[in-house]
Specification:
Blueprint (H helix, E strand, L loop, with lengths): L4 E6 L3 E10 L7 E6 L2 E3 L4 E4 L1 H6 L7 E10 L3 E8 L1 E9 L7 E5 L11 E3 L20 E2 L6 E9 L4 E9 L7 E8 L4 E7 L5 E8 L6 E10 L2 E3 L1
Parallel strand pairs: 9-10
Antiparallel strand pairs: 1-7, 2-6, 2-8, 3-4, 3-7, 5-6, 8-9, 11-16, 12-15, 12-17, 13-14, 13-16, 17-18
Length: 231
């Protein structure tokens, strides 16, 4: 997540449409501001669900959205303050057709980047605080694209038939495929598996409860491709 951070881009003065793919709170969403000579500008932000994500991960409904708004630059700089939330990607579309659209991918240096997007890493921000939230985590795990892998983990609960989700996501979430599987965990240790074919060269895993009361224990996570284990 980003806390009181500013992303700066030098731009010719003029009108632009900004489109951000981001995750915010369930009710308030992400807080975005454009600073014009250091003063926060009021933005009329339009939001819409990103159907590709909600289809795979329904719990992200009303969380991961596309945020779009129009700005007019008069100080040759887009200063985007991300007051709260997690941003995945950003497009800057000029009204002047002679100017080129800019696309930015916010992620780790070792992650793959979607074609046409420019990597933006944490040091590019004026100040930034990053932590794992909502199933997101770092570091990403290196995999071989389009090869079958097997993720396994031992689980136990204090509640019989306790629902637990196992997810694998490519990075960034918005542009890569993911897989999710819900299992019923018992009161004895048991190994659970999830096979997947990654569509990116780095992935991350999420294991968590489905909102039901109870305690979950996790042990011995393992990732295999063919006969080669990686713990």
């Amino acid at each position: 997540s980003v806390s009181s951070s500013i992303f700066k881009i030098t731009l010719p003065d003029g009108k632009y449409k900004i489109i951000a793919a981001a995750r915010g709170g369930m009710k308030k969403g992400i807080k975005l501001f454009e600073l014009e000579k250091g003063i926060k500008q009021s933005l009329k932000v339009k939001t819409k669900e990103i159907s590709e994500i909600v289809k795979i991960f329904p719990e992200y409904k009303n969380r991961v959205k596309e945020y779009s708004f129009d700005v007019e630059i008069a100080d040759k700089s887009l200063d985007l303050e991300i007051a709260s939330g997690t941003i995945f990607g950003l497009r800057v579309i000029p009204e002047d057709k002679n100017e080129k659209e800019l696309k930015f991918d916010f992620g780790m240096e070792e992650s793959s980047v979607k074609n046409g997007y420019k990597r933006v890493s944490a040091p590019k921000f004026a100040s930034i605080s990053i932590k794992g939230i909502g199933g997101d985590c770092t570091p990403r795990i290196r995999v071989i694209e389009d090869k079958e892998h097997l993720f396994s983990v031992y689980l136990k609960s204090d509640t019989p038939n306790f629902p637990v989700y196992m997810s694998v996501l490519g990075y960034p979430t918005l542009w890569r495929t993911g897989k999710k599987h819900v299992v019923k965990v018992g009161t004895e240790w048991k190994q659970y598996t999830l096979s997947f074919v990654p569509k990116s060269d780095t992935v991350y895993f999420a294991v968590g409860t489905c909102g039901k009361p109870g305690t979950l224990w996790i042990d011995e996570m393992e990732l295999k491709m063919s006969e080669e284990p990686t713990k």
